[in-house]
Design goal:
Blueprint: E1 16-20, H1 25-28, H2 43-60, E2 66-70, H3 74-87, E3 95-96, H4 113-120, E4 124-125, E5 130-131, H5 140-155, E6 160-165, H6 167-178, E7 199-203, E8 206-211
Parallel strand pairs: 1-6, 2-3, 2-6
Antiparallel strand pairs: 1-7, 4-5, 7-8
């Protein structure tokens, strides 16, 4: 009998600000983005990053003592560059980690939603807006495992941390940090969805929305 996954989160010492990157050309074209590394922001995506930066500057002030992290995707790093300007921080000192990337969509990655739906049926569960993993893609417990690995390595660092990441992976990270129940279908803790361009602050297991973005809901 397989042992149930352990979703225990290590003790955190500071606040985590978790941001979802701005809209990209793939989002605008309704293509499954997944873990594609380089899908640039649209004009709306840049505007969303500006709004995130302005909101964070109101909360944190200029040149705050905060660690910067992003997935190693172009869209996350672009978003972080704009936010860093608002905060007066050096983008070049930010750290990146592939464990913060979006759900891996396997052979569905890069395809248009409509084409995949015509082939296999709906791939976004309503009303939760969660992506169904591709047959050769990444599962939600696998996402949780890599994010728990990141938390084990860096979550206990003192002080505040800003993380720029993605739709599905940020929902799993937030679900872990908030102690959300394991999803009955997808098998891992998952928090409620937020639009692209959103930022939350999590401290001691509690979440506060810093800014709600104006982007879409799909990954």
């Amino acid at each position: 009998m397989a042992r149930s996954p352990d979703f225990s989160v290590p003790q955190l010492r500071g606040r985590l600000f978790i941001a979802r990157h701005g809209e990209t050309v793939f989002n605008a074209a309704k293509r499954l983005q997944g873990d594609h590394l380089h899908t640039p922001l649209t004009r709306d995506g840049f505007a969303q990053a500006d709004a995130m930066g302005a909101a964070l500057a109101q909360v944190l002030g200029l040149a705050p003592a905060i660690s910067l992290w992003a997935s190693d995707t172009g869209r996350a790093l672009q978003t972080l560059a704009i936010i860093s300007e608002h905060l007066g921080l050096n983008w070049h000192e930010a750290q990146r980690d592939p464990r913060l990337a979006e759900i891996g969509m396997g052979s569905w990655g890069g395809r248009y939603y409509a084409d995949v739906v015509a082939e296999v049926g709906p791939v976004v569960s309503a009303p939760e807006m969660l992506l169904t993993p591709a047959p050769d893609g990444e599962t939600y417990p696998q996402i949780a495992a890599r994010l728990l690995g990141w938390l084990a390595d860096h979550g206990a660092s003192p002080g505040d941390t800003l993380i720029i990441m993605h739709g599905i992976s940020s929902r799993v990270l937030r679900g872990l940090l908030l102690g959300a129940p394991v999803h009955s279908r997808f098998g891992a803790p998952v928090a409620a969805g937020l639009p692209q361009g959103s930022v939350v602050m999590i401290e001691s297991g509690h979440e506060e929305i810093v800014v709600t973005g104006t982007g879409g809901g799909h990954a």
